[in-house]
């Protein structure tokens, strides 16, 4: 048998992306039990010495960890693969949340890759950027649809070969019948989209009570779970200076924030000279890396999409997706 289905009893013991030895199987678990409810995990038998790097975490779990164990043969696996929703249905739900027509005219959004031979959508992987590491993760998870916030196809491709990483991504999707969808700027303008409230690609927020710029830095780091940000203090101001207005834009905020009067600009990245211009005009600037300023939204959207699809599809967050820039 190639697969084993396990019903997990002790959700708190599970660690994301860890491997466990059980009944002579090396089993990869991909997510914790959602909100304490037992869940069914399908795990492929594999050889840890050849398929997985030694740096991964291995544990041995007793049989009592599981409430049910059943082995799935070819027929059962065929039945499992036939479950799920039609791609058109999933797309209709995505469009209802944010129509591709809302995207900027220069953007490339919507369904970017559609397999010629359709298959039901049972597993969806959410990522901010589709990299080769995320693509490999998607294949290991038997993903049917990848939703990548940034469109992997932006500059037109003249060929689909193995020469460049972008070409390899699209070729891999087609070869494995994985659909690819990108919402990008269509998510930026909906009420519950990438920015936190209101409408438009940026937000101007008025705080209920003033806080220091140092407290603002701490709140940003905690909210998006990163250890460092870059801070440019306004001229003649210090870290104890109070702020009451914040203009924010996820991603690259130069074009959106330019000319906006606020005590603080919060965004992912900006051009050097625009930062200089801002601080000389009395505005603090916090930069927290392009994708780090966007990625947090996917956590809440995973729950939103699960509800939109009536809990009939497994929606996962990529564990491989991360900003390429690190402060060292």
Automatic annotation (TrEMBL):
<dbReference type="Pfam" id="PF01784">
    <property type="entry name" value="DUF34_NIF3"/>
</dbReference>
<keyword id="KW-0479">Metal-binding</keyword>
<dbReference type="InterPro" id="IPR002678">
    <property type="entry name" value="DUF34/NIF3"/>
</dbReference>
<protein>
    <recommendedName>
        <fullName>NIF3-like protein 1</fullName>
    </recommendedName>
</protein>
<feature type="binding site">
    <location>
        <position position="188"/>
    </location>
    <ligand>
        <name>a divalent metal cation</name>
    </ligand>
</feature>
<dbReference type="GO" id="GO:0046872">
    <property type="term" value="F:metal ion binding"/>
</dbReference>
<comment type="similarity">
    <text>Belongs to the GTP cyclohydrolase I type 2/NIF3 family.</text>
</comment>
<feature type="binding site">
    <location>
        <position position="290"/>
    </location>
    <ligand>
        <name>a divalent metal cation</name>
    </ligand>
</feature>
<feature type="binding site">
    <location>
        <position position="294"/>
    </location>
    <ligand>
        <name>a divalent metal cation</name>
    </ligand>
</feature>
<dbReference type="GO" id="GO:0005739">
    <property type="term" value="C:mitochondrion"/>
</dbReference>
<dbReference type="InterPro" id="IPR036069">
    <property type="entry name" value="DUF34/NIF3_sf"/>
</dbReference>
<feature type="binding site">
    <location>
        <position position="150"/>
    </location>
    <ligand>
        <name>a divalent metal cation</name>
    </ligand>
</feature>
